């Protein structure tokens, strides 16, 4: 359900007009600003849907990643690598998820220097319920049909590739 607009105009379009007047071509500024704003809107909606479960989208991603692992466990370093976040962010997420009983830390039996994260039964339950809710809002990208979502994904993937996000 669309929200009531907060402003009677598009602030990015207005910034574009001002940019043109004061600096020049606004094309890349307008796109970058729009991407950042859309990210804020999507995260806000996802976090709102996940709030009843006491998790944020960042923590949801940790739960989902653990559920995808073949063994049900992953080293904390692998979580950070796969989610492309700083180790401090992984530690923070793990602390909160562990305090909620959704994950637990376990020692790696093959390498005692390494700690693994494991999804608990309660974590699996919360993940299942949360996934239903996220799917119910189409991951907060409901303004685009499937073809537009695919096209947008490919455009953004090209930006990520050119930025060196992956090989």
What does this structure look like?
With 167 residues, the protein is mainly alpha-helical. The chain has one domain (11-151): Winged helix-like DNA-binding domain superfamily/Winged helix DNA-binding domain (Arc Repressor Mutant, subunit A), CATH 1.10.10. The protein contains seven helices and three strands; from the N terminus they run αααβααββαα. A three-stranded antiparallel β-sheet has the order 1-3-2. A hairpin with a 7-residue loop joins β2 (103-107) and β3 (115-119). α1 (11-22) runs antiparallel to α2. The protein starts with 10 loop residues before the first helix and ends in a 5-residue tail after the last helix.
Compute the number of structural domains.
1
Q: What is the third-level CATH name, the topology? A: Arc Repressor Mutant, subunit A
Q: Per the principal axes of the C-alpha atoms, what is the gross shape?
A: elongated
The radius of gyration is: 20 Å
Q: CATH superfamily assignment?
A: Winged helix-like DNA-binding domain superfamily/Winged helix DNA-binding domain
Number of helices: 7
Quote the beta fraction: 5-15%
Strand order in the sheet with the most strands:
1-3-2
- State the low-pLDDT regions, or none: none
Per CATH, the architecture is Orthogonal Bundle
- Overall average residue pLDDT: 93
Query: For the terminal residues, how far apart are their CA atoms?
Result: 38 Å
- Which class in CATH terms? Mainly Alpha
Number of strands: 3
Give helix and strand order, one letter per element, not per position.
HHHEHHEEHH
Which sheet architecture does the biggest sheet show?
A: 3 strands, antiparallel
């Amino acid at each position: 359900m669309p929200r009531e607009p907060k402003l009677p105009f598009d602030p990015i379009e207005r910034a574009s007009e001002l940019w043109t007047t004061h600096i020049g071509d606004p094309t890349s500024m307008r796109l970058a600003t729009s991407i950042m704003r859309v990210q804020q809107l999507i995260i806000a909606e996802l976090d709102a849907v996940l709030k009843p479960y006491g998790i944020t989208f960042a923590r949801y991603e940790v739960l989902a990643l653990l559920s995808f692992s073949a063994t049900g466990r992953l080293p904390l370093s692998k979580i950070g690598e796969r989610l492309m976040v700083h180790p401090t962010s992984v530690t923070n997420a793990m602390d909160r998820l562990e305090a909620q009983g959704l994950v637990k830390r376990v020692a790696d039996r093959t390498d005692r220097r390494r700690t693994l994260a494991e999804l608990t039964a309660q974590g699996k339950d919360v993940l299942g319920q949360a996934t239903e809710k996220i799917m119910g809002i189409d991951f907060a990208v409901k303004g685009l049909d499937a073809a537009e979502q695919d096209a947008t994904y490919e455009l953004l993937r090209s930006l990520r590739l050119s930025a060196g996000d992956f090989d």
